[in-house]
Design a protein that fits this description.
Layout: H1 2-21, E1 47-50, E2 55-57, H2 58-61, E3 65-71, H3 76-93, E4 99-106, H4 110-120, E5 126-129, H5 135-138, E6 147-151, E7 157-162, H6 166-181
Parallel strand pairs: 3-4, 4-5
Antiparallel strand pairs: 1-2, 1-5, 3-6, 6-7
Length: about 180
């Protein structure tokens, strides 16, 4: 009987630990972040063109953990965050077919976006966002550009950040790692 209880206890502890590891942390998004999308809702239908001419739609991202990084060359906080995205997320997961990272550059022409990518020494793809149409599908008019949206394999928004806050960024890295394990 003691052996059975011991096995049951270990099993329950293991299941409990696994359940905690396999759940994305619930995050309340402050209103001042300026998002018009919500955690748990499907990613809006968008279409974007990468700097190499590749076109990507929301449908192309289904079944993949997706990170959209909203950025612009004139944004100092974006410039501060991008090396961390490159090192802590992109280089770690770029060869994983279940992961997509796209920097969405807010309303800048192709040549400027290409120069920005080169200057920042990032290797993850950047997309053009003429008129900031994609940006304003996620954020309110007048909202600041530095933000990230994480979408799970089912196409639901699961995590969003604003500005570059180390704790929030580290939690986002953990969320991505967790989603890619599942």
């Amino acid at each position: 009987m003691k052996k059975l209880l011991s096995v049951l206890s270990i099993t329950l502890l293991t299941m409990s630990a696994f359940a905690q590891l396999s759940t994305v942390p619930e995050k309340e998004i402050p209103e001042d972040y300026g998002y018009i999308v919500k955690i748990g809702q499907p990613m809006p239908e968008i279409e974007m063109e990468l700097t190499d001419g590749t076109k990507i739609t929301t449908a192309d991202l289904k079944g993949k953990v997706t990170m959209l990084q909203f950025t612009a060359s004139w944004c100092s906080v974006c410039r501060k965050e991008m090396p961390h995205i490159e090192k802590d997320i992109w280089l770690k997961h770029k060869d994983n077919d279940d992961f997509v990272l796209i920097g969405v550059d807010m309303d800048e022409p192709l040549d400027k976006v290409k120069d920005f990518k080169e200057t920042m020494k990032t290797t993850y793809p950047l997309a053009l966002d003429p008129g900031a149409d994609i940006f304003y599908t996620f954020a309110a008019k007048g909202a600041g550009v530095t933000r990230n949206v994480i979408v799970d394999k089912t196409g639901k928004i699961v995590y969003m950040t604003r500005l570059f806050k180390e704790d929030e960024f580290n939690e986002m890295v953990e969320v991505i790692d967790l989603l890619l394990k599942g």
